[in-house]
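hi! just following up on the protien thing from before. the input was this:
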Amino acid sequence: MHVDLNSIISALSALLLGYFTFKQNDKKSDMDSVENNRDYIVEQNKRLNAENKKLLNENEKLRKELSENEAKH
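and the predicted 3d structure came back as:
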């Protein structure tokens, strides 16, 4: 059985190219995951900021009512 050196080099090249192709696809997948996580965090941050603003307004209203009630007594 005779194996040509060119065949061995071609096979090794194909394996290396396949390896690096899958490696790049994994990186893209990781980047998509990171971006999805970032988008989720940004959305949650916006939601929490809006909720915080609403609660601050409610807190201010209750403080005002409390000070008015204390002024009456």
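The CA atoms of residues 17 and 32 lie 23 Å apart.
The helical segments are 5-72.
cheers
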